[in-house]
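Q: For a teaching handout, I want to show students what a protein-ligand complex looks like in token form. Below are the inputs, and the small molecule is adenosine monophosphate. Please produce the holo structure.
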Amino acid sequence: MLIAKTNKELKKFLENPEINQKIGFVPTMGALHLGHLKLIEKSKKENLFTVVSIFVNPKQFNNKEDFNKYPITINEDIELLKSVNCNLLYMPSYEEIYPSGLENINIPLHDLDKVYEGEKRPGHFAGVAAVVHRLFSLVEPHKAFFGLKDFQQCIVIKNLRDQYFKNIKLKFCPTIREKCGLAMSSRNKRLSKEGLKIASNIYKAMKEVKSNFNKIEINTALSEGLKILKQYPIEIDYFSVANKHSLKPNKQWMPVRNNVLLVAVIVEDVRLIDNIVI
Ligand code: AMP
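A: Here is the structure, written as tokens, with adenosine monophosphate included.
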């Protein structure tokens, strides 16, 4: 596996004309788990050459403590990447991503930053859009792979692609879960065994809402789901059904598979997000 730490090295590795129209790209913040590896496997299947980036992007953390506590497991990550035959790992420094003059790039977000994660984490999606804009410009992939676990992020990336990178194909891939239903996340590494058990109720609560699709009113279905979460030490940030495309909260059910239940909770001081399409 090739490793590039600078943009110069990255450019040199990507120069080969045989690969440069067949590059799959998987941006990550490291602390890799099976959810990331599935994205890489998919990219490997669909492209000649797969680039994975690891960059913990300070601009997308609205909370400094969250940034400082973000798990870093670079040696394990490199072994995992080799095990799935990743072709190139790009692990830039802050200065490579944000050289002077490019630190304050501002991408129009069309109000996607005003709801759910955007509302709760001011500046988060501006940071996500800035880093993905920079990474897309540097890697120039043919296809890029993202997880539906971060549902609203997928919509933000699509908005970015439509504005600046019409030639990049986006692939949004299903959420990979633990056996207990908990969505895999780098942040799960910060939970105790007990915390992991408690967090598995997020999926149970989401499934409860889904099971009531079109049987009872949305608000009643949400209350039934919340009843499950309220039995445990779980702080609820939001638990709401939205239109899957506009992310506007739904007052009534939309036709099947057009509703998304968006969830953000805090367990043991760790903020977890999840979602389910209904
Ligand atoms: P992160 O390292 O958290 O920034 O995630 C990098 C990419 O992996 C993003 O596109 C995430 O949506 C995706 N991802 C993270 N967790 C999962 C999961 N459990 N299943 C599928 N994709 C995931």
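A: Two things your students might notice: Residues 28-29, 35-36, 39, 146-147, 149-150, 173, 175-176, 183-186 surround adenosine monophosphate (CB under 6 Å). The radius of gyration is 19 Å.
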